[in-house]
Amino acid sequence: MSRAPAEPIAARISRELADRIVAGQIAAGSRLRQDHVAVEFGTSHVPVREAFRRLEAQGLVESEPRRGVRVCGVSLDEMREIAEMRAALEVLALRHAAPHLTQSILDEAEEATRAGDRAGDVQAWEEANRRFHRLILSPCAMPRLLRSIDDLQTASARFLFAGWRAEWETPTDRDHRAILAALREGDLAAATAVLARHVQWIGQGPKRRPPLVR
Amino acid sequence: MSRAPAEPIAARISRELADRIVAGQIAAGSRLRQDHVAVEFGTSHVPVREAFRRLEAQGLVESEPRRGVRVCGVSLDEMREIAEMRAALEVLALRHAAPHLTQSILDEAEEATRAGDRAGDVQAWEEANRRFHRLILSPCAMPRLLRSIDDLQTASARFLFAGWRAEWETPTDRDHRAILAALREGDLAAATAVLARHVQWIGQGPKRRPPLVR
DNA sequence: TCCATCCAGATTATAGATAGTTTTCTTGTC
DNA sequence: GACAAGAAAACTATCTATAATCTGGATGGA
Q: Which InterPro entries does the record cross-reference, listed alphabetically (chains A, B) (predicted)?
């Protein structure tokens, strides 16, 4: 069949650039010039501009009217802000998702936690961590809320990759298991409390070295 | 003087379309066709497409890859979702803003409440209401949070204008004054509790008539 | 005979490329 | 340090291609 992808080029560019920004391959504060990006992707700058708007909405770049776009910074303040927003919104989502959680979803979440334990690098751990959160939150059936949470998780991942690569994993698996245990017992209050603390833990920043603002 | 605005056309189009959608001049569910909009504004379709991306980020329209964009619906579920998100985020913002609130800010907020009392139509009331919230929240100095809240308030206004035009105003001024009183006394817990209830009250929907989904 | 389904052509709309204009930044000169 | 000329980049318009939708009509079945 070899059906043409039918995915607009703008979407592809925005995905690719988002990945690079999150991975830290594009430095914070650096300018993105539409012609250069266009040349690199072998397209014109028109879809590039649309991709920029998308990244702007995700909070990965900021744009000034006639002066181009630049990658957002990764300061400690921004990190805390995002962590607190995540905590507030994920608690809300979990509160609505809890009544619709099934045994099989909880089992899948358990498996995601184990995958996080087995993860050898940050990327794999982050993916497992995000899968865990998505699993227990998406049954809330609130699409706008889930989209916001997803954008915030992307931004969180950016901090994770940018700053410190050592101290992931250890306490999170405990938190994940505590959340699952509370959910299995129907103790929603305990589950949301642990979730809030767990998310904000990420926002506490590095214990030893500063967050490598490039 | 008379400096050319230097505001990109895309920004102007997105503002104008957002106003119309919020005001209910463009029906929920109707399609927006880029070259029609372009003809109306006397431009090409390129800035129109960028405006669409902006509206999509604000949650006013939804876009399918090669099938165009259409105005989001205004169901009761979406309304509740937005109200709950607002409650969660505005409480967070107030918690961080409270330490930085000054006497003059509270006085201005009081004045905004009075302006809401005096408002003769929904538009004026909505503007005063939004000014009140912005005043007491913006000292939190969390730009990303404030942007999210602003988008949610825009969506709220849409429901307000779309569905029912009778029952605004009455209880809200009481809530606003209760929030201000609690803030003046330094009772942050009471202030956030009233704020959360107050915001979710909007999400309760019309008491008598259904929300006029067009 | 009437109705539903499906297909081909025409029409419409989205998406992207190319080219030109305007604004901003840079560099060289006084 | 200020200013002007040049370069670079953002922004928009026009044109083109590709995908989706709509129309009419044919076919098959009850």
A: GntR_C, TF_FadR/GntR_C, Tscrpt_reg_HTH_GntR, WH-like_DNA-bd_sf, WH_DNA-bd_sf
